Amino acid sequence: MPFFRFADIPSEYVTPKYSKAFGPLLTGMQIEIGRLRFGKGQGAVPHAHPQEQVMVVLTGRLRVILDGQATDVGPGEGFLAPPNVLHQVTALEDAEVLSCKGLVDGRGHRI
């Protein structure tokens, strides 16, 4: 699928064990990208995973705790979580993000 529209990909709760992230996922051979939404107050509990992750805020604001350091990020900002580093995300307002993860053992966001 070299061309796609996120609007045509079914939305899902991508990491229900850890977060309320909801949206479509596009999975390639080595990387997965999601256009995900969090409602105000929603987010991801503290967790770590073997995948490297980059998250960029499109709309809204997030509070991110990454390896013990807290930072608020807004549109055009984000974070890079190295593999196996503890991180947590809380939406300070309704937010939409692009979340990119490398695939480890064929898995990205669906952990």
From TrEMBL:
Residue span, Cupin type-2 domain: 36-96
InterPro entries reported for this sequence: Cupin_2 (IPR013096), RmlC-like_jellyroll (IPR014710), RmlC_Cupin_sf (IPR011051)
Record-annotated membrane-spanning stretches: none
A matching Pfam family: Cupin_2
Full protein name: Cupin domain-containing protein
Source organism superkingdom: Bacteria
